[in-house]
Write a structure and sequence with these properties.
Number of strands: 16
Shape: globular
Distance between the termini: 46 Å
CATH architecture of the largest domain: Alpha-Beta Barrel
Bound molecules: D-gluconic acid, magnesium ion
Radius of gyration: 21 Å
Pfam families: MR_MLE_C, MR_MLE_N
CATH topology of the largest domain: TIM Barrel
Number of domains: 2
Protein name: D-galactonate dehydratase family protein
Family: Belongs to the mandelate racemase/muconate lactonizing enzyme family. GalD subfamily.
Helix content: 25-40%
Oligomer: single chain
Largest sheet: 10 strands, mixed
């Protein structure tokens, strides 16, 4: 069996997705997602210029060997662009494998460990009351877990994932006004004064059962993160996400010495080597990698197995940055993983998105039920894809009030 060709599509209804379709001499094709948010043209070029010409003629069933060929063969290993590109090919090869076996992917991993996988939604508010309304709406839809982000009093601009005006829906994933980012202003002291009390009020309002998550988005120093984690301990958070910049593996040691709050990290990690120390030293509770830019199913499965040895559960990244193709790959891993924790899930479910990526993975009452179709269980409509093209976008850049650059 041979790979005969592959096509790349960049674009989408609400944001740019990078989709690969790999064709074979037996008519079976596979789909992969190489979306690297706000840098989408880069994995597309890596795939187009180097990886696809090498793929042609290879046996698509040898997904492990193909992964090793590209990873080791690159010499300059890791990094989000390369790993997103390898990841997309890997997903597509698993999709082909599942279709050849006539089985949904979770069967090839070891079958189902659960019926449905719990997901969390994103609640956000300009102020605490606005946020309470947003949480209520999700609770009423049946969600068991909600990530909560709130505007900080006195902060000169909206902070991470928080809209400018009440009830608005902020697209903080991409600002499509071009490659020049918007500037957001941040003040750690105001955040540290306000947020622990706000989280306590949310717990008091919604009672003990709601799983409350909060994302610090890498903005605290290790000492500040330890202080924050200690302060929010009585809230009983499901997790505290990215309290410190993710490159600094030492940072979490100090937090661990001061608090038992569960820590989630890893959405910017690309490799098992980025989380090896954190997992083996049991400094984290949830690993947040995504199958897209952490090298696909083959590599993420290794991370999941390593994590399982150290009581670390999964909490895969699922911001709208990812297309329904990589989300489908994660639904299959979530159905199987013995150490599954939770899945971040934002309903892309617009008619345009469903038309571009038809699938029958189901979301009901805050749980995802994986599709039983062979392979990934998601398709890609090339005619629909012709409606969309690449639009340049960017993440905001954060500055302190005196102008100093800070972490987004
Ligand atoms: C999350 C993330 C995202 C990122 C986004 C960047 O927890 O969902 O922090 O919201 O900001 O993926 O592109
Ligand atoms: Mg995050």
């Amino acid at each position: 069996m041979k790979i005969t060709g592959a096509k790349i599509f960049v674009g989408g209804p609400a944001k740019n997705y990078v989709t690969i379709k790999i064709m074979t001499d037996q008519g079976v094709y596979g789909l992969g997602d190489a979306t690297l948010n706000n840098r989408e043209t880069l994995p597309a070029a890596y795939l187009q210029d180097y990886l696809i010409p090498n793929l042609i003629g290879m046996d698509p069933r040898n997904s492990e060997d193909i992964w090793q060929f590209f990873y080791r063969g690159a010499y300059f290993r890791r990094g989000p662009i390369a790993m997103a590109s390898f990841g997309a090919i890997d997903m597509a090869l698993w999709d082909i494998k599942g279709k050849l076996a006539n089985m949904p992917l979770y069967q090839l991993f070891g079958g189902k460990s659960r019926d449905g996988a719990m997901v969390y939604a994103h609640a956000t508010g300009t102020d605490l009351e606005d946020l309470m309304d947003s949480i209520t709406a999700y609770v009423e839809q049946g969600y068991k877990a909600v990530r909560v982000q709130c505007g900080i009093p006195g902060m000169p601009s909206a902070s991470y994932a928080v809209p400018e005006t009440r009830g608005a829906n902020k697209n903080y994933i991409s600002d499509f006004s071009g490659v020049r980012p918007k500037i957001e202003v941040w003040d750690t002291e105001k955040y540290l004064r306000f947020m622990p009390g706000a989280l306590a009020e949310i717990r008091a309002r919604f009672g003990p059962d709601l799983k409350i998550l909060h994302d610090v988005h890498h903005r605290l120093t290790p000492r500040e993160a330890a202080q924050f984690a200690k302060a929010v301990e009585p809230v009983g958070l499901y997790w505290l996400e990215d309290p410190t910049p993710a490159e600094d593996q030492n940072a979490l040691r100090l937090l661990r010495q001061h608090s038992t709050v569960p820590v989630a990290i890893g959405e910017v990690f690309n490799s098992i080597w980025d989380c090896n120390t954190l997992i083996q030293e049991e400094l984290i509770d949830f690993i947040r990698v995504a199958v897209t830019y952490a090298g696909g199913i083959t590599h993420v499965k290794r991370i999941v197995d390593l994590a399982g040895l150290h009581h670390v559960k999964t909490g895969f990244h699922g911001a709208p940055s990812h297309s329904p193709i990589s989300m489908a790959a994660q639904h299959h891993l979530n159905a199987w993983a013995p150490n599954f924790g939770i899945q971040e899930y934002l309903v892309l479910g617009t008619p345009e998105c469903d038309a571009l990526f038809p699938s029958d993975h189901k979301m009901e009452n805050g749980m995802v039920y994986v599709s039983d179709a062979p392979g990934l269980g998601v398709d890609f409509d090339e005619n629909e894809a012709e409606k969309y093209s690449y639009r340049a976008g960017s993440h905001p850049v954060v500055r302190l009030e005196d102008g100093t650059i800070w972490d987004y």
